[in-house]
Design brief:
The complex is a heterodimer. By secondary structure, chain A is an alpha+beta fold. Chain A contains 5 helices and 12 strands. The radius of gyration of chain A is 21 Å and the shape is globular. The N terminus of chain A is likely disordered. The chains are: A alpha+beta, B alpha+beta. At the A-B interface, helix 1, strand 4 and helix 2 of A face helix 4 and strand 10 of B.
Chain lengths: 240, 259
């Protein structure tokens, strides 16, 4: 220690701060959160909670996980906030370029493919982001795309991602009973629920997830996309 | 992907792509040492920030700790950025001072355009977010949690960004120990219409609690005020601690098995 007074040497190994960081650092962090989306025949509902946490600490109670990619395409993401924000900015920039080149907005299925490619581009240093894309397709039907962190994706009728997905997904499976994807020819995957029924179901699943998942809570932000545009709603969740 | 410095011949016929199996250029060069930050040397502890009626207040002590040694006692951890924003830092002090230099260059360059435009707190926060995230992408992070407070045409701004680029805004924020000890107090007592006096009182109460429980904090603080009029960073001051609390006298009383 004595010789360290004048020049800067690392602290002695016995010093706490040094030992704490012996394990060095991680470029990733899980900031939690849950996303849900349901596709209807002429609408799509996308929702996410607004809690942002790390470990047992809550960083903020009002952080939106939902990002509007276009007039008919919404992205909801949970995972590592810094990666998510980067991903959103990247997609937004790509969409601006697309609009300048084609003089129209990107379709939701095209945006879904772009997100997949963007995630896979970082296959060996991935974005730690778990995404659900929801919106209306070219026929005006509701569509939901669900992803893993490295870009595998699938079009489905409903989906959930994030820390509360283990709690929410089985409930959606049970309540929505969409046709088996094994059936040939393929059956309609969008739910026959009405818009307000789908919204009520989502509200119930979030209230339940907030009860048991510590990373889900505070409040829920919900977007409805239909022919008349986008509507936004909020619902309070448990704050403990 | 990443440069490895391995001769092309070496790689031929090799089944494993080494650039993937070894993500960092630790062993690339015989001449230059590794210059990636793996842990901090001199660190500052919590920074607190709240919005109040007329602007934003930030608070921090002036310690720079070297491990568990309080090595420096007059470190300025609150720094004005331009005319209407203040940056507060916990974590590695040298990294903070480097960030501060970047910001001064940015603000100066902006000023030299002489177009009357200047960076607002939102833009400065965005810059810091990208800076921190970019450094973590290089596996050479700035080891800080930064708090940015500012005011821009009547809008109050208070944001945080950490060493890996995670960032958020809130009405009240705190880094490190402060997130555990000060934020619960903020949640109880913070209001949108706090006066300056009430805001300062709340911050001083939290600083004192941190002084009691966070061993690397010292009783020498600064508070920064950002309003429409500009930035004022206070002279260093001390608070009057009260060691007469009953629980301080015999802290092991009621803790069975302790000595």
């Amino acid at each position: 220690m004595a010789m360290a007074m004048g020049c800067l040497l690392p602290p002695e190994p016995s010093q706490a701060a040094y030992r704490e960081h012996q394990s060095t650092w991680s470029p990733y962090e899980n900031n939690g959160g849950t996303c849900v989306a349901i596709a209807g025949l002429d609408y799509c509902v996308i929702a996410a909670d607004t809690r942002m946490s790390v470990g047992f600490s809550i960083l903020t109670r009002e952080h939106s996980k939902i990002f509007q990619l276009s007039e008919k395409c919404i992205l909801a993401s949970s995972g590592f906030q810094a990666d998510i924000r980067t991903l959103q900015k990247h997609l937004d920039a790509r969409h601006k370029i697309y609009q300048h080149e084609h003089n129209k907005q990107m379709s939701c299925p095209a945006m879904a493919q772009l997100l997949s490619n963007t995630l896979y581009y970082k296959r060996f240093f991935p974005y730690y982001a778990f995404n659900v894309v929801g919106g209306l397709d070219n026929e005006g039907k509701g569509c939901v795309y669900t992803y893993d962190a490295v870009g595998s994706y699938e079009r489905v009728g409903y989906s959930s991602q994030g820390s509360g997905m283990q709690l929410i997904m089985p409930v959606l499976d049970n309540q929505l009973k969409s046709a088996s994807p094994l059936l040939l020819p393929a059956k309609e995957s969008a739910t026959s629920l009405t818009e307000s029924e789908a919204i009520d179901l989502i509200k119930d699943t979030f209230a339940s997830a907030a009860e048991r998942d510590i990373y889900t809570g505070d409040s829920m932000e919900l977007l409805v996309v239909n022919a008349s545009g986008i509507r936004r709603e909020y619902m309070e969740l448990k704050k403990d | 992907m990443f440069a490895t410095g391995i001769a092309e011949e070496d790689r031929k016929g090799s089944y494993v792509d080494r650039s993937i199996s070894r993500p960092c250029n630790f062993e690339i060069s015989q001449q230059s040492p590794v210059t990636h930050t793996q842990y901090p040397y001199v660190t500052g502890t919590s920074v607190l920030g709240i919005k109040y009626k007329d602007g934003v207040l930030l608070a921090a002590d002036m310690a720079g700790s070297y491990g568990s040694t309080v090595r420096y006692k007059s470190i300025h951890r609150l720094k004005a950025v331009g005319s209407h924003a203040v940056l507060g830092a916990s974590g590695e002090i040298s990294d903070f001072q480097q960030v501060t230099q970047y910001l001064d260059e940015l603000v100066l360059n902006d000023y030299m355009w002489e177009d009357g435009n200047k960076l607002g707190p939102q833009e400065i926060h965005s810059y810091l977010n990208r800076l921190m995230y970019n450094k973590r992408n290089k596996f050479d992070p700035f080891w800080n949690s930064l708090v940015l407070g500012g005011v821009e045409n009547g809008q109050k701004y208070l944001g945080v960004v950490n060493m890996i680029g995670v960032h958020y805004k809130d009405n009240h924020v705190a880094t490190g120990f402060g997130n555990h000890l000060a934020r619960p107090m903020f949640r109880n007592e913070w209001r949108e219409d706090l006066t300056l006096e009430e805001g300062v009182k709340l911050l001083e109460k939290c600083l004192l609690v941190l002084f009691y429980r966070d061993r690397s904090s010292i009783n020498k603080f600064q508070i920064a005020k950002i309003t429409e009029e500009g930035v004022v960073i206070s002279e260093p001051f001390a608070l009057k601690p009260n060691w007469d609390f009953k629980a301080f006298h015999n802290p092991t009383l009621g803790a069975d098995g302790s000595w």
